[in-house]
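Protocol step 4 of 5: obtain the predicted structure for the target chain.
Materials: sequence only (see below). No template structures provided, no constraints applied. The aim of this step is simply to have a reference model before the mutagenesis design in step 5. Sequence pasted as it appears in the construct record:
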Amino acid sequence: MDPHGGQGTPHEPTPTIWPVGFAIGIACLFVGLIISTIVLIVGAVLTAIFGFLWIRDATSGLRTVPAQPQEEPEPAPSAPPIPAHKGPPAMPEPGEGEVIRFPRSKMLEATTLGLGGLIGLIVTAPVLGFTILPPFLKQGHPDLTKSRVHVLRGQFALATQILQRFLQFIGQRFKHIETVRPQ
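Step 4 output (structure tokens):
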């Protein structure tokens, strides 16, 4: 597989295999922490090699000297530029009844912030609701509030009415089942 294939534009790098090797090295590194030292060393070596190759490939455009473009002769100025504080405004003020428009970038910025806030609310509201709200609703289970913890000679035993009721329920459900013993 050719690691330098693809037709990358000046703003995007060409696709390479180096990030995949780097990820495999990191995975081997973590597996080696659990399994053995040999796998750990192999993961560290793979991570170092592929990380170096990836960085070298990503910065190759910064190390080369760009070709000098042909210089165009500057056109002679016909008149000096007008200072900013003199002359008419570059964009006229909106007329009466005309909607003041915002640039597209401002609209996208506001939309992104709004959607981010909405997603944050959707994610956090249930968590906050289930963690903070129950104490204020005075919820409780009468059987749990009557439970006791007894200390018997260093051993802890939790006796609750719920456990007793559960055992009674199971006993009633399965009392009709006969024990079948092999003959």
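Step 4 remarks: Residues 26 and 47 are 6 Å apart (CA to CA). The beta strands are 148-152, 155-159.
Proceed to step 5.
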